[in-house]
Each structure stands twice: as C-alpha cells, then as structure tokens.
Fold this sequence. Notes:
By secondary structure, the protein is an alpha/beta fold. The protein has a single domain, classed as Spore Coat Polysaccharide Biosynthesis Protein SpsA, Chain A (Alpha-Beta Complex). The protein is built from six helices and ten strands.
Amino acid sequence: MKPLIVIPARGGSKGIPRKNIKLLGGKPLIQYTIEAAREVFDDSVICVSTDDIEIKDIVESLGLIVPFVRPVEFAQDTTGSYVVLLHAIDFYEMNGYRPDTIILLQPTSPFRTGKHIREALKLYRDDCKMLISVKYAKSNPYYNLFEENPDGFLVKSKAADFTRRQDCPIVYEINGAIYVINVEALKERPLAQFSQIKKYVMDEISSHDLDTLFDWDFAEYFVKK
C-alpha cells in the first residue's frame, strides 16, 4: 500500500466557529487527529489540507509540515471531500509521490485513535473500493424511521411488520471517523457513487463527531471525565 493520509481542515465553520483549532481538553481539536495518524504513519504521507494560515501555523507548531495552502475555490461552504481529496492527490503526484490508497481522517472525530485506524486497515481488501467506519444506528428504518407520503401521512421508511426493534435487520450509521479509499476508483467517481464498500464498526464514544456546540460540550465532559 502507498498511502496518503488527508486531514481536511477548512478555516470556516458555522456550527462550532473555528472548531478545527478550538481547544478541547487544552489542545487544538486537530491535534487529536494528527496524533492518531502519527501512531500509524510517517509524517511524510500525512497531509493537512487547509486554506487557513492560522491552522497551518498551529499544525506546523506540532512539527508537521503543511505542504500547501488550499486554494480559496476549494474551501467554500459547498466544497465537498471529493474535490479536496483530488486536489491533494494531484499535488502529491506532481511532486513525485503516487498514492494508491487515501485514508481520510476528519478532525471532528477526536476519539478515533491509531488503534482504530490499524483495525480498519486490516479489514480493507483489494476487492473493495472503500472502507468506512460506522456505528450501530439507534434508529431503524424498519421500525421507527418514517417518511411523509404524497397524501401527507407518515409511512415507515422501509415497509415491515416488526413488533420489536431487536428483530429488525441491523443498520449502520456512518460516523465520519475513517475512510479508506482506492485512489483509482476515486478518480472515476465521487464517494456518494461508490459501491463495493466494507465497514469497520466503532463504539459510540469513539464515534463521537463534533458538529454542534452540544456535541462539543459532551466531548469536553468526556475529556474531563
């Protein structure tokens, strides 16, 4: 495997302002992900992709070189991971390193560790195009998830007659912590169009994702505890 670890860290953030460098337990949020990546990979293949000079400076104060400042057009509210990953791949290929596998680690998963990354990599096989980390979903489309039909009435998202949630098929929720992606497949299509996807199941705490201030407060509580 020739990996490239991409940690996307845009300066703009609405739910939690400046969240990528906001202090959690006394250190910048992004530091948790950098430390997890360093448990597994050499600094030379860890790429923090940011458009923000302050984020760049904080990352480099941790001893990790930021190879580029992401262009403004690739750092908008509407910019998805697909564009960010292709930009990083193109940069490294132009500089002589041709990765065959992308490991995407989002800074908003501070409780994902190097151990989780290693376990995920062991499950990644040549016959799959992507492996994603998930957690067991609390809600189930066969039981307690509903959609509104054309007549304005609620119907189950998946028609079923289960009377106990325990009897329903197990469903998973993507937690956003780890993505292991085949580079050639990524060049052909965005992540939403992938098939042949494998899963790596993580527990509730390790899966915790920071999107709102409530999420942040819980993370602060957990760190202090």
